[in-house]
From TrEMBL, chains A, B, C:
Residues annotated as domain Beta-galactosidase C-terminal: 600-656
Keywords: Glycosidase, Hydrolase, Metal-binding, Zinc
Protein name: Beta-galactosidase
Ranges of residues in domain Beta-galactosidase trimerisation: 389-591
Keyword Metal-binding carried by entry: yes
Annotated binding of Zn(2+), by residue: C107, C148, C150, C153
Assigned GO CC terms: beta-galactosidase complex
Active site (catalytic residues): E142, E299
Family: Belongs to the glycosyl hydrolase 42 family.
Length: 656, 656, 656
């Protein structure tokens, strides 16, 4: 595993560069990421390029055998560019143009921005794409599918719609514009739905605009990537993903890239209540699933976070090292810490790096140094990958659609995914988070929560999987919408009815209220948010409602379909249900389980086909012991062990 | 009683029309409402009218002996109209123009909107006003007194003010503009008070603007109504009222209309705590009181509600039928359910109709069918009306004024009205909600809560009533403001002092704090929000404060005035007080009471002068029994009964 | 002590003036403040001045030997001025111009506003500056450092920055603009940071803009003051301070003024929980400290408050009189009540004066009359002042900086100051709140909480004080920022390290979490928000952390430095700690303490060098007794007393 740091040469006096490089080399740093905010120093005036300082910075660090991750600086255009073309800045949902002085605020469709973005990317590519010190490229920074409503975006959105739907009549039909006499008689009447007032918006229009915004972000990354590839087809290119509410479609985003990278900020405060606890490993598995390969962490938690928002607590002992190793346990081969030294200036000066403002390395740096020290032991692991028998399907389209129409008070698409992820993780198995369109044949069980918006590809993919013997779990709010985000005139779950062997006669959006279900073994569980009332066809009831007017009606069903099995969970439960349910699925499908793992202990396995490396991570603040079934070889401690004693956030890796 | 449904022919394929009509006819549907959102199909291009489809729709349903309620479509102008005249859209309080694609967003003062609205209304009137299938007309949809601040509204508001006050000097005096050197030297300086920042606004200006907005809405409805009357003076015309914070003056709104209609969405979740529980019957009584006649329900709860907001729970068994019958118990002669089938497209696709997206009739439809089946039994009831001995005065002007200046934390004008309504309702009597200017002579007791803004008519009306022997209850915050919303320089309750025989020496706006009052019989009650400290003149104390520096001072008084009695309740209490107090008022005035009604059971009586029909409605989730004093004839079950067993939301109607 | 009232002759019929003056004279009122909102009557049209009515008003009241406090009316320009120059109104943070019809909304940098403001001030000065009835002048009203973003303010802010930093390069360096490529290439690119979106702002830019806004307010007051001084150099001039989030730098504001005045609205609701309770005396001490002299109260609580916000409770018996005397106990020589009679019109009609809308004097007026009656007894006190041995440093610059970057959830600069103030106050000593640049030599102990932004003057002042034998208490977040609001590259607390003999190896921003500290005597206290982890140099530990990874590390230290002592409190505690800590400081520095004062009782002392007058104020709702160590002479009751029985909000003053 390679350990790196984020570094901003343009923010520090040159005298510091060499001192920093020396300390990095001593510590064992192997990669230095730089450049993503440096446009104003690379091109201080229109067309006047200054690369000497970057040449020197690259030389300074590569002199000590560190590789450079070079970023394109398009996230922060320089002031002179705004001055000349003020309309390259995004316009917010309320119609106001953002102000300068911040970051990530350029409009990705603005023609003059694109002209200059391409030029600076080209210049960098020409100068550095064949420089052997460059280990990888990062395009832009934390790209978002931001819903810009500027005049250019409006125009392009109109074109995008007509490209897709052919005629204005088709758009009217797709949006159901007749409903409120909102039929467009001219394409110019189409407006992004983010305007005023917030409510009353057409969900079909909203979903299309959200897709358009995502496409915009993905196309920008792809176009910039092509510019570098043109100079060096072997250049390794990525963009760093940051999970926000405006996350672009991660599968499309990562499609043309060489590898996925992720900005990883696990929580410092660990909730006591198991119900509230979702390991950050969900996000890591999702990153691995974005293109089903190992990935990099491009920014890793290094200190207290905070900026315009108040600071949070400083990482607990073990978290700097442990969370980096947890990333490896889920498929990261490289972890780059954000950042070497905390910024003394600018809006993010309270987002702490490894070294504090004082420039005196302290406790966190010492822990980072330990990490660097043991990292070479993991070289054997770099050639391994995670093989999973369980997959959970994450669909960007459903994610978007649920944000547009929250189904009921408390309903949260991500929460449901994380519940299933946590339930299987508690048995110590690898879990993949993948696209509904991904190849499912290698899995023994596939969880497909709330397959809300119909996609022909995805539905056929799931059918093919079950027909050939797979086990699938579908849940409430599946098959509800057609691809235009309109309701389908068929009994729910529409296209999935045949597979689950049951249909929904009615539903009860209970929101914050609670109901109770009883499973076939007599166990009772509280459920919440949504209750589908099912009528059995070929299916059997796995659990039934206890009370209300649907007491005795099935809530969860199980159906043998062709060679496979389809479960349907018509409600949202708590962890007690999901854990038991996951256990039963694993029993049924023959996935081996580790029972009785202590709370917070996460177990994953990486393999190269010959050797298996098992990771035991203690994601809790309590020391805990694990007795191994047989003596195994500890990679970190270089010896055989029967028992693993895990400190808080401690990691052990054994070869099986 | 006639049962109907809301139907949107323009939203469905024509193949469905006939199938729907057949099912409606089988089910017993008697009325179909249509047209309120169909402008873009009636006039797809400027001046190009297409009525053939509407002709056919009307024919399709009237063929099965169903009457048509035809709506004018002015709530949703078509896109081509916005394109030509973008300034026909409202401008919000913050100065931003609303966007298209929603509903109810046209400015009711915009000249070009009015031109087109009149034309389409005229076209519809000419074609259908004498069509015998048209049972009634609905003007526009859920009209609101929306505070539009567009340039036209500003101008018209200025004219409205000068019309009313004659000179700019009078406006300055009425607004007290001298206070902050805000005296207008030119009429152009007058601006609606809805701008920026929200606070600091002059309450006199705010009240006038709110009255202007209400007048705008009322005038629009009246003008459109006249257009139809011109074609057929016997046309039955209404507009459907939806209770929102921008409710126009309901008395003025209904004044020129043939009948009142109401969009009735009672709550699905019934609060357990009696304190939180206000029956939706308050609203129904208010609708009957809007013009003191029986009314229609134009939209009736039919399924789970939700749209841009999350969905709520689905109606409980009994609610579809029970809430429709509850409306009848309070004076509805027609109940039209919203809507036949849930929309599959558009922003309101989660606002459920009787039939789900699937088009498979289910549990709720079955209950609706039952309702239709028994409806013919109520034909005898159609000629009856509610006669009440108790009235509560609702004043739109006070309602507005309290929104402008919330008196204290928690103070809520409607809550106070609803407390009194619930208190009397618990004794099984009819209660009217009427205008302070309505004829009071027929009532034995009149509750006049918080008569805040002085109206000469209302005050004289109340005085006349008491002088001739009536019993009135006044409450805190009466007589505070002159008609311009300024404070009166007299001891409170100013004009009402003489009548109540007491005056207020001081008040304590306690907000969320609590005090205690003790009534003449020694009962203690908590009180809240406001404490008037009274000095007795001719009055006697009904209750006194227990603590604080006004311990021992009267809080509630009773005064014999001329031939009548005037109570004054100087504080806000909880239901325990109001129930006891209502009981005492009824005892004093000789209104017969039903004691010991089970919680949630509502009893009202409709009469035709000969026969009395008593309605027993169980507005709760618990089955309950009522023992009748003697055997009575059940209209629903067609037999004599001594005991009524009411299912949850069950209704029994007996002839006395 | 002089008692006065605020009066608005322009709001009342002239018939009332004389009646009011007679009642004031009978009651014992000595001062009448007027004029601050009367511009539209003083200059109803451009250049047309009407002073006759003001002449008459002044005559009416001075006839009864009352002095006049005359206010300049620049807080509310007349409408005709806005009509001619609409851009004299402020532009809010979101870029929208405020509307007319409110107050305090003029832009203090708008050239045409300044032209007219100077002219009306000049006119008033020429006419009244030498009128012997004028006791004092008030400039404007409740001036705020409002962050106006209008075009003029933008331009002036740019000039202000260049004046201060010389070159655009220096501004770029000071703001760290390189961080996000935000380097200005032209001065026109500089924009106030209050725009859209709210977050992501550069803290260096924010602090400079906040300083600029404060400077704007201070300069305006100073300029207007000069105009009056030009006519009469002996005129006594002030401006009334209102504590809001946009408070200007009070030291700079009061610098050129003859005395400080304050709008004093202590809370009517007294919290039961000691933790929540901060006496309003903190604000009074701060006003005295603004220029280290006695001060006036220009507006004093007289009734229930409320306006656009709901009304709060009416003052409890004793509060009208008691809070006025509390102000005297902290250095007020004059208390003017807001207002004589409650406004019947305008936005503030619910902000109650001494007399209610009814114009019938009531309970509150009677208490005010009592106050007036005893006021002459305090004439001897007018020549006295408070001498303190403890000072707390309040820094406007730190106040601002902490608003810009809230350190952690719950962190509140003012709360910390108030905790220390309350802790010392509980021992019955005078406490000064002063500038970090004030002369400290006269204090035995100086509390310097969170000296966040470095100021050379302040740091040297504190060092000088300790070197010469003073005792100082520094606390967490000291020495963090350089004068540009950037972090200093040195171990914390940077410049104060040497003095405290310790340094901070790490900190933990725990926010709402809690930790525990144990002092040298074994007492445990909960701490919160922030934990500095200290390494001792020459210092000793006063308290250590108990748990977490820094258990056993010092949290509070004590260091002998030269002839003095420097404490450092590296965390935020609750009152239990501060009270004990203050007691220890007082013991160490030899400040005499009154132990066992009942909760809520405040004791201060005023002296003229010969006689000491001790004030005992019961700031609680419970009667309480104080046994004096020896018999003393009660100024209020004119007799010797051994025991003081204090009613709720009661005051006793004894001569020692």
């Amino acid at each position: 595993m390679k350990i790196g740091v984020d570094y901003y040469p343009e923010q520090w006096n040159r005298e510091l560069w060499n001192a920093d490089a020396v300390l990095m080399a001593q510590t064992g740093v192997k990669l230095v990421r730089m450049g993503e905010f440096a446009w104003s120093r690379l091109e201080p005036r229109d067309g006047e390029f200054h690369f000497e300082w970057l040449d020197e910075a690259i030389k300074t660090f590569s002199r000590y055998a560190m590789g450079i991750v070079l970023c394109t600086p398009t996230s922060c255009p320089p002031m002179w560019l705004y001055e000349t073309y003020p309309d390259i800045i995004q316009v917010g949902a309320d119609g106001n143009r953002l102000q300068t002085g911040i970051r990530g605020h350029r409009c990705l469709n603005a023609p003059m921005f694109l002209y200059y973005a391409k030029r600076i990317t080209e210049q960098l590519a020409k100068r550095y794409a064949n420089n052997p010190s460059i280990a990888a490229w990062q395009i832009d920074n934390e790209i978002e599918a931001y819903p810009c409503t500027c005049e250019v975006c409006r125009e392009q959105f109109r074109d995008w719609l007509i490209d897709k739907h052919d005629t204005i009549e088709n758009v009217n039909a797709a949006f159901g514009n007749i409903v409120w006499s909102g039929e467009y008689s001219d394409v110019s009447q189409i407006k992004p739905p983010n305007a005023y007032p917030k409510a009353w918006q057409n969900p079909a229009l909203c979903l299309e605009f959200s897709r358009f915004s995502s496409d915009t972000a993905c196309r920008f990354i792809s176009d910039m990537s092509q510019i570098i590839k043109r100079e060096n087809p072997k250049a390794k290119i990525t963009t760093n993903i940051c999970i926000t509410k405006d996350l672009p479609d991660i599968y499309r985003l990562c499609d043309g890239l060489d590898f996925t990278s992720y900005d990883n900020y696990p929580p410092v405060r660990i909730p006591e209540n198991e119900e509230e606890f979702y390991s950050h490993s969900f996000n890591l598995d999702m990153m691995r699933g974005s293109n089903q390969k190992n990935f990099w962490v491009m920014e890793q938690l290094s200190g207290a976070t905070g900026s315009w928002m108040p600071m949070g607590p400083t990482p607990r002992p073990g978290q700097i090292k442990g969370y980096a190793l947890q990333a490896m346990a889920h498929g990261a081969d490289t972890v780059i810490h954000f950042r070497w030294r905390t910024a003394n200036k600018g809006a993010e000066m309270h987002w702490h790096g490894l070294i504090d403002h004082s420039n005196i390395p302290g406790r966190r740096f010492a822990e980072f140094a330990e990490l660097c020290k043991i990292a070479p032991k993991f070289d054997v692991i770099e050639t391994t990958e995670l093989v999973s028998e369980v997959a959970i399907l994450y669909s960007p389209d459903n994610d978007r659609a649920f944000r547009i129409q929250p189904q009921t008070e408390g309903f949260d698409y991500w929460e449901q995914l994380k519940c299933f992820h946590a339930a299987f993780s508690k048995y110590g198995v690898n879990v993949d988070i993948i696209s509904p369109d991904a190849d499912l044949t290698k899995y023994k069980a596939v969880i497909a929560p709330s397959m809300y918006v119909y996609s022909k590809n995805s539905a056929e993919n799931i059918y093919r999987y079950v027909i050939k013997g797979g086990t699938v779990v579908l849940t409430a709010r599946s098959g509800v919408k057609d691809p235009n985000n309109n309701c389908i005139m068929e009994p729910l779950p529409t296209v999935y009815r045949e597979m689950i062997g049951a249909e929904i006669s009615e539903y009860d959006p209970i929101g914050k209220d609670e109901q109770t279900i009883v499973d076939f073994a007599g166990n009772e569980y509280k459920c919440r948010q949504w209750c589908d009332i099912l009528e059995l066809g070929t299916a059997r009831a796995y659990a039934e409602y206890k009370d209300c007017f649907y007491g005795g009606k099935p809530a969860v069903t199980m159906n043998r379909y062709c060679s496979g099995v389809a479960y349907y969970v018509g409600t949202i439960c708590h962890m007690d249900f999901y854990k038991k349910f996951a256990g039963n699925i694993m029993k049924q499908t023959g996935i081996p389980r580790l029972n009785d793992l202590p709370q917070g202990v996460e177990v994953t396995t990486r393999t190269n086909g010959l050797d298996d490396y098992i990771f035991f991570f203690n994601n809790s603040e309590r020391e805990t012991d694990i007795n191994l079934p047989k003596s195994m070889y500890s990679i970190i401690e270089d010896k055989e062990k029967n028992m693993l004693r895990l400190a808080p956030f401690g990691m052990e890796i054994v070869r099986k």
